[in-house]
Design goal:
Length: about 210
């Protein structure tokens, strides 16, 4: 119980520090959130979204799960994307993975994890589809980190495949999708994909708004 009390003490210290710098901060924040960014990241406790990019509360809309996956059957994730795009009118969706991800590491192994196995299966699919890229790589850390990168790229594609995003593009809404990766060892971000901001970058078989080449 002492540990929980310390969290409340930390909260009061944090709130007081914010108010000391800007007395009207929480009053303004309570009125409306207007973030320009949606962050889809890993649930790993070492990857705090706001802190990594130096943004304050209200400036970053966040969805996190094991290994930053965007699965077509995940209503939770798609509800977040829809709300961010349709109602908050975010201008950027960032899928951010991180090196040494435990979920990705599990996808390269054979240990049963319980319910998480159903989720990890999606990362196993990424590995299977890209298995040729791992040829000649024997180092376990290199294999994990390569799959971390490939997983981000696949999840970026999955975001682009959603009707939510494609409808936004069709209506002329400004929306860009990005794939990044974070290194826990040095705290730095790295770009993995080019900015995607139109249906033309989506393969024809995944277009659902009627646009074809």
């Amino acid at each position: 119980m002492t540990d929980l009390n310390s969290l409340f003490q930390n909260n009061r210290s944090w709130a007081n520090a914010i108010k000391a710098e800007d007395p009207d901060f929480f009053t303004t924040l309570a009125k409306q959130q207007r973030p320009e960014f949606l962050w889809i990241g890993c649930a790993d406790s070492r990857v705090p979204a706001n802190e990594i990019v130096g943004l304050m509360p209200g400036e970053l809309f966040v969805h996190r799960n094991i290994a930053n996956c965007v699965v077509h059957t995940d209503i939770n994730c798609h509800s977040v994307i829809e709300y961010a795009v349709k109602f908050l009118k975010v201008k950027h969706i960032i899928v951010c993975g991180h090196y040494g991800c435990g979920g990705v590491q599990a996808a390269l192994g054979h240990e049963q994890l319980g319910v998480a196995d159903h989720w990890i299966r999606h990362i196993r699919d990424v590995y299977y589809n890209k298995r040729k890229d791992f040829k000649g790589i024997d180092d376990d850390k290199q294999r994990v980190n390569l799959l971390c990168e490939l997983n981000v790229k696949q999840q970026v594609a999955n975001v682009c495949h959603t009707p939510i995003v494609q409808n936004a593009w069709s209506s002329g809404q400004e929306l860009a999708i990005h794939g990044w990766i974070y290194d826990v060892k040095d705290g730095l971000l790295k770009k993995l994909t080019q900015t995607i901001n139109s249906i033309e970058s989506v393969r024809e078989q995944y277009r659902v708004d009627g646009s074809t080449e």
